[in-house]
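chain below, 484 aa
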Amino acid sequence: MAPPTRQFHRLSIGQDMPASRTPRAEGQPAPTQGHRDEGDDSSSAESESEEEGEESAESSDDESEAGSKVRAHSGITYDLSHLDTESEAQAMVGLMGEFDVVNCRASSEGFDFQLLDRPRVHIGPDSPTCTCSTFQDRPEGACQHIFWLLDQLHGCFLSNPPSTEVALSHNGRPVVRQRIEDLLTGKLEAVANQLNWQYLRDEGDSRTTAMTRVEKVRDVLSAFTPTILPEDFRPDLVETTTPARTAEQCVVQGDFQATIFRLAVHDDGVRSSLCKAMPAGACAAIYFDKIQDHTRRLLAGFDRYCATGEIPSNPSSPGGGPVQIDQVFEELRRSVSRIRSHIGFRAPYGFEGAAKALVFILDAISSRHKDPLDGNTWGRTSFQGEDEDQRNLYLMLIGDPDMDLEQDADLFVITALEALPPASLYQFIDELRDIRGKIEVNRAPKVFLYRLGDLIRSAELAASASGQKRPAAGNSGGHSKRTR
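prediction:
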C-alpha cells in the first residue's frame, strides 16, 4: 500500500486549488486547470496505480539488492547476489560469525587450517574443501568455515578494503584478481602471526622460524613452573605427533602432567585450551624473565662461592654439583644463545623481554673486570690451575684491546641484540650508554665498542622516526600484563 502522502505528489506550491467543486453548466467548456471530469479521474487513477506498482517494484528491487550485500569483519563488503539460497545462508553465517583457528601449516598440496570445532579447511589450486558435515553433504558449494576463512585471509592482504562490493562465488572464493593460494605462498607464517594463529612447521624441518607442536606444548606447560625452562622441562617426556593417539591412549597412570602433555600433543582441543590460558605473548615474557633470573642466581651463587667457599647448587640442574668457573662460562654463553634463538622462535612477541635480559647480562659482565678470587676469606688461589685473567669473566667473554676480531665476528650479547628490532632497544639506551662507558674504560676490543655504539644509534633513529617516547622507569619489564 502506498503511503498517504502519495496522493499529493502532483501538487505544487502556488497551484490553484479551489475550496469546493462547482457543477459545470450545460455547454460550458471543460475546465483546463485544477479540475477533472470523471473520465479524467478514471484515467488518472489508472496512471497512479501503475506508478505505485512501478515504485513498489523498484523499492522491492532496492531492498533485495541491499540485502545481498554484507560487510564482513575484515572490512570487505561482499555481493551475495550470485549465490543460491543455501550458499547465501552459509555465506551470511560465515562472514558474520567467529571461529577459532587452532593451527595452520603449508604443504606441497596447499594450505591446511585446523579449526577449534574440529573441521579442517584445505586451500589449494582447486576449490577449497572442509571436513565439516555441511560441506560433505554438499561438496559442490562452500560451508560457513570456508567463507569465514577466506575472508580472514583476504583481509590480511587488503589493507584498504575496496569501495565496491566484491562478488562471491559458490565455492566461497571472492572474485578478485589474485587467488589466495598465490598470495599465501611463502607468507603463511607472517599471516599466522598477524592473526595470532599457531603456525606449524614439519618436525623434520631444521629452520628456526617456528616451534614444532611438541616444542610448543613443552613451552606452554613449562610456563606454569617458576624456574624450569622449556628445554629442561621433563626430558623423560618424549612424544611425536605420529602415530596419533586417542584420548584413552594418552593416559599415563599416576602421572597427570605426562597425561596432559600427551593430550596436548595429540588433541587439538586440549592444546587450544592450554594456549588460550597461556598465550604466546605470555610464554615469551615468562621465558625471557626466567633466563634473566637464571643468570642472576648463577652469578650470585658464583660470587658467594668465590668469596666464602660456600658451594651452591647449579641453578640449571637443581640439586646438582658446585658452580665452577668453566660452568659459569658455559651457562652464560648458553643463556645468550638461547635468547638469540628464541627471538626468532617467538617473533613478534617477547622483544622487550629479550632486550631486558640481554642488557642485564651484558651489564653484569661489564662490571666484573676483576679476579673473582681477589680478597676471598677462605684462601683459594685458583679453581683448576688457571691464572687470574683466565677466570676474569669480562676478559673471557668481552675481551681485551689486543684481540684481533673480524668486523662480523660473533660477539657475546652484541650479536643477539642485533637480532632485535632497533626500536625495542630504545627504552634501554641509558643502560647501554653506561655499559659502553664501562667497557671504554676497560679497553674493550674496538669492534665490540663500534657495534655497541651502532646499536645505540640505530635505536635512537628508529625511535625518532616512529615518535616513540621512552617509558617511565619501572614500566619496562616483567609480565604483569600478558600479551595475547
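The chain has three domains: 70-195, 213-277, 280-466. Residues 195 and 377 are 58 Å apart (CA to CA).
thats it, cya
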